[in-house]
Fold each of these.
Amino acid sequence: MNRQHSRYFSPLNLILAALLASVALPTMAEQNEAPIQVTDETFNCIRDMTKVRGFYVDNLLGDLDGTLEVANSSTGGVYPPGSVVQLVPGEVMIKHQKDFNPATKDWEFFELDVSEEGSKIRKRGFVDVVNRFGGNCFACHVQAKPQWDLICETGHGCEPIPLTKEILTLLQKTDPRCESNPKLNQEEIAKLQALQQALIAKDKASK
Ligand code: HEC
């Protein structure tokens, strides 16, 4: 080996090369730890997500299997980062990276305005998001027993919401962001109109 050669392969150079290589090529794990960005464009037709019992889930980091595993578990678990959960078109929970916000177990709460044009984030945050009817998302969802990771459903310990399963299904079927929605019968339309009137009255009362 000549002098030139041995200098080129000195241990220091090898260490520098290794450092540079690790900077240039972040591992999959490092990419998956980047903060999760949420904008109006993150949201879409609720029925394009994956249905689990009465609600819908997705995963912004591509880990739908991880999200489904917890959602389908009979003993609960911790939803993986990127998990998106929705019951009605206008309210969403999104799981951030671990320890992003320990108080809410890393869940962020969203209230959306949805229309045929898409979604607009009306409110977002952690312990302090209050929906348009005066209810604090976190205050209800934190009542879920620890194994359910703030997911309420029924029987997990949360104060119930005043909407029947039938009404919830109707709200999912009429998400204005969906390309096409199933036709409703007269009775279903009447039920939704009654709900709308009740919500308008409640909205006025809370102002
Ligand atoms: C009065 C208590 C209460 C308030 C306030 C409330 N929720 Fe819920 N939420 C519930 C209950 C109970 C369910 C389950 C209903 C069911 O499955 O029949 C639920 C369901 C959900 C679900 C589906 C997953 C689950 O936990 O079952 C999401 C997502 C959700 N709520 C988000 C929100 C967001 C976002 C807000 C605030 C903008 C909010 N909620 C405010 C009680 C509440």
Amino acid sequence: MKKLLITLGAISIMGITPLLTNATPQSDLEEFRAYFYKKFPGVKLQDYSNGIYALDKARRFEWQESEEFPAYEEAVEKGEKMFAKYGMKSCFKNGGVSIKQNYPYFDKKTGKVRTLEEDIMACLKNNGVDVKAEKLKYKKGKLAAISAYMAYTSRGKKQNVVIPNDPAAMDAYQSGKTFFYAKRGQLNFSCADCHVYNAGKMARGNLLSPALGHTSHFPVWRKKWAAKSAKKRGGESKPFDGLGTIQRRYGGCNKQVRAKPLKVHTAAYNNLEYFHTYMSNGIKLNGPAIRQ
Ligand code: HEC
């Protein structure tokens, strides 16, 4: 990690003024996009859904090859089967098809942000599924496979997070925004330090992706995660092993700066997801996707 600090020594913090009081979500979004357009003039808005592969040709080539017979394919099929087996169609608008672009949303009844994974979990429970016995947990595994199936049916839809004119919704958005720009962990880095100001630079051999488009392709499939799950099982791998939801990734990025990862699907991460996803409004969904 020391090395990381050295690499990021020359942090540039110009160009974005994140905490202006009179900013609206819409003006934030415009500013966010404009920042990246200026930084990477050759990259088109829709290409930001491809993370680091929008920036690096060599990596992009390798990645495109891996997407031809993608490692997540079987997991998506399993997700579809579980979706049917657990009778989940009835829980969602449009039978759960082509709806991921509307997540996360502000739920007026509870005054809180709701994520897709929470709606999946609630649906399972409503339908009498014994989630413990069936090992349906947040972040990965079977639940992530259901989420991956729903993402798959939503490919091509433009991200469309709505911030209704409601003080509680604005508060949720603001809290997510503050989280995104706040420094944390022993290394004292904010999400923005790595994924805005230093996007396109290297940190410990990793190219840092732009935060614009970050949320379009989740859940993702990572070799690292697949190996970890298989190892736990003594080497036997399952199709959905490599999958992780966006909030699993938040935990990993918090750990990178030696901050304690937070509990998933509680207010802090849900509000972060609300802000983070809103910033990618207008970008077409292309999940699930393979990532390093
Ligand atoms: C110390 C630098 C650092 C910080 C701080 C950091 N990340 Fe990351 N993040 C990484 C690296 C490295 C990767 C893997 C390469 C990439 O895709 O950027 C990554 C990947 C990601 C990805 C996956 C990108 C993709 O295309 O799938 C998301 C989403 C993400 N980070 C969000 C966040 C959020 C939100 C925060 C703040 C809570 C954060 N990160 C803080 C370094 C960081």
